[in-house]
Specification:
The protein is 29% helix and 14% strand. It is of the alpha/beta class. Among the domains are: 7-44; 46-129, no CATH class. Helix 8 links the parallel strand 4 (132-137) and strand 5 (158-163). The radius of gyration is 25 Å and the shape is globular. Residues 287-297 have a biased composition (Basic residues).
């Protein structure tokens, strides 16, 4: 007579997957028969989110049941109110999770300042297998500790940084100018994906950390969704360094373009220049606005593509870029005022016009314009007007099926 022990593994997996989001039934299935235990545990423990109510129970479970620890793949350690960092996760506990490859945490989950030297070694060894790390940076001082830790992670492919200054505009240019640790073995850290969001000033220490050691030399996806908070433009624009470092291998580029943040600088000339057209060479540089005042782009300007003059800093090889996505943050009046010559320059730089500008992007398949919510202040027909306006002005991209207008 057939029994539950005779069920094929594929069928057991299918049965358990039917209630993989039902924790009560998952626990019950593990009690039905021992054959259900591995599949139930896999779904119960593959993604663990630590909270104030379960953290001590989880640590005790890992200590008493090493088998359970092997099922954990992703560990989420959000900020916990009234919990000291030392109470969240000791390095020794992380070291007992041999298959964790995805880690999400707030600024200081390991109590970096109080971590003994012996525990630093344990932690460094435990994170070497990580492939994805997501960190919420609300205080700047743990960032060098994270940099030192991740420099030794050869498997790390995806890094996500969310910058949210504690309080109301508490980061200054001086705050973000602190030294970042150099890698003892440059080239060990090679990212494939970098996503940065929040306060633009976080890019200053990130660039100082990632660019010199070649961590972006194989980057394929770069998402920079940052803005100057409180109209504080005191920190330098560090985007050019990131784009230039990733240019040889970059395939997907997504940028949030706040008009006061041109993607140009006196010392670098990226092959993609996404900004309002700069003033003529003879014109004096624009004055820095007073704190609290927003510097508006010149009338008729738009995020544009241009081919800069030769520069020792410029990337001259054809770009591997395949997808470009822009949130240009322009209001309708300014978009309508952009001269036709500007739009032609955009198309010439991407597709080739006079000269060989388009040869820089032979692999480019799509250009996405975003930001319709800023185009007409949330009107119900804002997207239709925005889409029509952009399409009318970039007919060659439309003809080739490359233009995408996103919401």
């Amino acid at each position: 007579m057939a029994s539950i022990l005779d069920l094929p593994h594929e069928l057991i997996d299918r049965i358990v997957s039917e209630f993989q989001h039902d924790l009560v039934n998952l626990r019950t299935s593990a009690l039905i028969s021992s054959v259900f235990v591995p599949w139930s545990r896999q779904r119960l423990f593959s993604n663990v989110r630590l909270t104030a109510s379960n953290i001590y129970a989880f640590r005790a479970l890992i200590e008493s049941s090493p088998t359970v620890a092997s099922y954990v793949r992703r560990l989420d350690m959000p900020m916990m109110d009234n919990f000291p960092p030392s109470a969240i996760l000791p390095p020794t506990t992380l070291a007992q999770l041999p298959n964790v490859t995805n880690l999400s945490a707030h600024s200081d989950p390991f109590d970096f300042r109080q971590l003994p030297a012996g525990q630093e070694i344990v932690l460094a060894e435990a994170v070497r297998r990580l492939t994805t790390v997501e960190v919420l940076i609300d205080r700047l001082w743990p960032l060098p500790a994270w940099a030192t830790l991740l420099n030794g992670c050869p498997a790390l492919a995806t890094l996500v940084i969310k910058a949210e200054a504690t309080g109301w505009g508490t980061w200054s240019a001086a705050d973000v100018a602190f030294p970042m640790p150099a890698s003892s073995a440059p080239g060990t850290l090679r990212l494939r994906t970098l996503r940065v969001s929040g306060d633009c000033k976080i890019l200053v220490p990130l660039s100082a950390w990632l660019v010199p050691q070649g961590a972006l030399a194989t980057l394929q996806t770069l998402v920079v969704d940052v803005s100057y908070l409180l109209d504080d433009y005191s920190a330098p624009d560090a985007r050019p360094a990131l784009v230039l470092a990733a240019a040889p291998s970059l395939r997907e580029l997504t940028l949030h373009l706040d008009p006061p943040m041109p993607l140009t600088s006196p010392d670098t000339a990226p092959s993609i220049r996404l900004a309002s057209f700069p003033p003529p060479p003879c014109a004096p540089p624009p004055r820095r606005p007073r704190r609290g005042h927003r510097r508006l782009p010149p009338r008729g300007s738009a995020p544009s593509f241009s081919c800069p003059p030769p520069s020792p800093h410029a990337h001259t090889e054809p770009s591997a870029l395949e997808e470009l996505s822009l949130d240009h943050s322009m209001i309708r009046r300014d978009l309508l005022a952009v001269p036709a010559a500007t739009w032609r320059t955009i198309e010439d730089a991407l597709l080739g016009g006079e000269g060989d500008a388009g040869e820089q992007y032979p692999h480019l398949r799509s250009v996405t314009y975003k930001g319709c919510q800023k185009f007409s202040l949330g009107s119900s027909d804002a997207f239709e007007h925005f889409s029509g306006t952009v399409r009318e002005r970039l007919p060659r991209l439309v003809e080739r099926g490359m233009l995408v207008v996103g919401r």
